[in-house]
Amino acid sequence: METVFRNKRISGILGILPETSCDFEEEMRGGATPRNLMIKRNMGYGKRYRTKKDTTTAQLCIKGMQYLLEKGYIEKEEIGAILVISFSPDYYVPHISNQIHGAFELPVDILTVDSWAGCSGYIKGLMQAFCILEALDENKKVLLFTGDVRNRLNGEKEIYDTPPYGGDGASITIVENTEYDCEIPFMMKTNGEAGSLVSNRQGAYADLYHTGKCDLHLDTARESFLFYQQRVPDFVQQLADYAHVDLNEVEHFFFIQANELSVRKFADKLAIDKDRVSMDLVAKYGDMSATLNPIGIVDHYGSELLGGDGHFVLICGYGLGAEWGGAFLTLNNFIFCENITTDL
């Protein structure tokens, strides 16, 4: 799919982080051994955020929503749709968007939608939000939530033989129409034949009577790494050609990352200066799936986006499906742009 969305913009991003972070050396067996430090250095691991054992994705999202309402960043009357992107839903039903809606006694004419997606979820969610805006009144906004909780703390110290890198967290992005002329070139690709590279088959109706822990399956991590190394750089250039964008004009690149190595190689293949690419997100937050895109934007720009100066960026996600997508857009005049820490 390729298209250009017009007169749409992001007007605010909030990241929601649990209060507990864990250091790589503390979680790895043997601690700061030469082997563990080499893995950390090569892959860019650092710390990751983990929720308490009873925390749900909806609870993180509701905390963030409460914060936005208390700060006056959004009014209930402005909300036209609640869109949630996650690959760790709390239940089959009710959906997370329904739980958010019910927690705040919102009007019944608000559209609520949950969409299942992994690391490609933020860019896929932006696409869905832009489409939903076409059907809403001009003054209504879409609240795009991302969130995943897969790394809960079990109340005792856990030691790992292989590197733990997943991180828990959520985000809220306000997407709205704008009267100013602007274009957002967008592209999305899918290869269902490669869907088994990263999969989670346990727990759904095809495996209703599963037993044991529900784990994400990578077939193998190396194959998944190579698959996207072969596709993402070419895809970025293809999107740039479609949008008539010179990559030298892009101020910053936001890639999803399970490790720093993958993004470093993207930058090398695209001949991008590494200071124009967020390299250290997995070291600061862990692999937060779709949430790492909005968290990364806040991490890099923060309050700079409250001003009127335009920041032309690429947002790119890739992962489960197999799917990969991206969009060029200008970020400015945000109402808010911050990450908060909760007690969850």
Strand content: 25-35%
**Low-confidence parts lasting 5 or more residues at pLDDT below 50?**
none
Q: Biggest β-sheet, characterized?
A: 6 strands, mixed
| Shape descriptor | globular
User: What does the average pLDDT come to?
Assistant: 91
Distance between the termini: 38 Å
Count of discrete alpha- or pi-helical segments spanning 4 or more residues: 9
> How many strands in all?
15
* Rg from Cα: 19 Å
Secondary structure category: alpha/beta
Q: Enumerate the strands of the largest sheet in spatial order, edge to edge or round the barrel.
A: 6-5-7-8-2-15
**Helix and strand run:** EEEHHEHEHEHEEEEEHEHHHEEE
Describe the fold and architecture.
The chain has 344 residues and is of the alpha/beta class. 29% of the residues lie in helices and 27% in strands. The protein is built from 9 helices and 15 strands. The protein has helices at 24-27, 34-43, 57-71, 96-103, 121-133, 221-243, 260-270, 281-285, 292-301; strands at 2-6, 8-17, 20-23, 47-50, 79-86, 111-116, 141-148, 169-177, 183-190, 198-199, 217-218, 252-255, 311-319, 323-331, 336-341. The chain has a 6-stranded mixed β-sheet, sandwiched between helices. Strands 1-9-14-13-12 form a 5-stranded mixed β-sheet, with helices on both faces. A two-stranded antiparallel sheet has the order 3-4. Helix 4 links the parallel strand 5 and strand 6 (111-116). The mean pLDDT is 91.
Note the main attributes of this structure:
344 residues, alpha/beta, five-stranded mixed beta sheet, 15 strands
